[in-house]
Structure to design on (272 residues):
């Protein structure tokens, strides 16, 4: 197994550059901030960006937790990659990760200054310092369930080399808890207001009520009752309402919606 390292201080754009570098060097697996990534899939680990403090994030990134470490080590043994790209803030961090995961010594060390311009590094630092933005080198759909309630955005990178077909790589921008001062929470009352607002925009829905929100680590489950105006096809109408609720709540809160359960309680007749 060949181990390649990408090294740079925190916030200098390592994760942003990781996919392109891996493609260039024909590396299928990436270790970044506690995750083992293959292509555009997370195959093992837990992101350090979910941690509530910088200290716990560092411990997660270097696999100090026994269960986390064993999970990633088992996955590496299972998939037996020929090459792995490891991202770290220093040579010391890279060496600690390789020792902890029982990986071979690093065969090549690439520093962020070797592949990024001063302007790119400066821009990355500005976004990290002022906006708390962190990049994860996988598509948003892959991490959404693990970052429910976080501010997340998709980031698409177009890359084309001469005489080659254009390639599109998707990354995800997150703003972790430890990037902020204070605590970010969303009350159930706000979510219920968003659901009622979504229902009010669906023609054929007379009323939405009895709304319940169940929160679990991966996201939320929404349950509600509705009154439907007579004469409307119920199944298509309820599917449309589910779509509107998901769009409204996810767009405004970044919460991951696992299910929207709707019960039609009443048909409303309108007489001329």
């Amino acid at each position: 197994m060949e181990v390649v390292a990408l090294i740079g201080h925190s916030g200098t754009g390592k994760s942003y550059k990781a996919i392109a570098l891996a493609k260039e060097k024909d590396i299928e697996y990436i270790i970044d901030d506690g995750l083992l990534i293959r292509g555009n899939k997370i195959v093992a680990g837990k992101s350090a960006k979910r941690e509530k403090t910088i200290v716990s994030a560092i411990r997660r990134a270097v696999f100090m937790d026994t269960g986390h470490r064993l999970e990633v080590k088992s996955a590496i043994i299972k998939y037996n990659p020929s090459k792995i790209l490891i991202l770290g803030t220093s040579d010391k961090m890279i060496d600690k990760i390789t020792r902890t995961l029982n990986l071979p010594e690093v065969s090549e060390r690439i520093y962020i200054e070797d592949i990024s311009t001063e302007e790119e590094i400066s821009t990355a630092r500005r976004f990290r310092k002022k906006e708390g933005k962190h990049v994860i080198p996988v598509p948003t759909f892959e991490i959404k369930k693990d970052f429910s309630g976080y501010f997340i955005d998709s980031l698409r990178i177009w890359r084309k080399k001469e005489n080659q077909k254009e390639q599109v790589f998707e990354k995800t921008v997150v703003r972790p808890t430890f990037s902020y001062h204070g605590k970010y929470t969303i009350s159930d009352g706000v979510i219920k207001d968003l659901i009622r607002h979504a229902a009010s925009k669906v023609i054929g829905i007379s009323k939405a009520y009895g709304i319940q929100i169940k929160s679990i680590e991966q996201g939320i489950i929404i349950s509600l009752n509705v009154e439907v105006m007579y004469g409307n096809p119920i199944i298509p109408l309820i599917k449309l309402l589910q779509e509107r609720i998901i769009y409204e709540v996810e767009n405004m809160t970044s919460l991951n919606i696992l299910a929207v359960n709707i019960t039609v309680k009443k048909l409303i007749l309108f007489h001329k």
